[in-house]
Design goal:
Layout lengths: L1 E10 L5 E7 L8 E7 L1 H11 L9 H11 L3 E11 L2 E10 L2 E7 L1 H11 L2 E4 L1 H7 L1 E2 L8 H8 L10 H9 L8
Parallel strand pairs: 4-7
Antiparallel strand pairs: 1-2, 1-7, 2-3, 3-8, 4-5, 5-6
Helix pairs in contact: 1-3, 2-3
Length: 177
């Protein structure tokens, strides 16, 4: 398993939301990312958690967190375990008084919950091998000019043009086994 972080949430050319998972120890623009297509509500829920935003009422994943906490359990980790016929599978591992419990989940729900409770997110190496793609989020064509224009230091500018081009051209069917 490879520990990952949410590198971002994007929208492809068909309007589908994509979550990007990247190894925690890989610098921007290096290594691989795993894109997983998710629903709009799940994308919103993940962004709310990652950005520590507040909502007027609890979202479904806030409810999940509250239920788990009220039952005296904790989320030990979430894992994206495999891909079957283009569908990603995940598991949530809970620790409770009577031991560990593993629950089948959609990756979007698992990641949204992990982002709320600070649990580790892991992706199986076989998933990286099958669905991983080069990370192009940190590259820049003219980093100095872009840095000057944005006021951000060089090296901290995300370049998403190439990645967005990939998202425009890719079809989720490309990841079917």
């Amino acid at each position: 398993m490879v520990e990952v972080r949410v590198a971002g949430v994007a929208i492809d050319s068909t309007g589908q939301h994509v979550i990007l998972l990247k190894p925690v120890d890989a610098p921007e623009g290096e290594g691989s990312v795993v894109p997983i297509w998710i629903g709009a509500q799940e994308a919103t829920s993940i962004l709310v958690a990652v950005e520590n935003a507040t909502t007027p009422r609890p979202l479904a994943h806030d409810l999940m967190r509250s239920m788990i906490e009220n039952l005296g359990a904790t989320v030990a980790r979430v894992e994206v375990t495999r891909i079957e016929e283009g569908t990603f599978f995940a598991e949530i591992t809970l620790t409770a008084a009577d031991g560990e419990h593993t629950i089948d989940a959609r990756p979007s729900d698992a990641v949204a919950l992990a982002a709320r409770v600070g649990a580790a997110i892991e992706v199986a190496e076989a998933v990286f091998d099958e669905a991983g793609m080069p990370d192009m989020l940190g590259e820049a064509d003219d980093e100095d000019a872009a840095s000057e224009a944005s006021g951000m230091p060089a090296g901290e500018l995300p370049k998403v043009d190439d990645f967005m081009k990939f998202l425009d051209e890719v079809d989720p069917e490309d990841f079917r086994g």
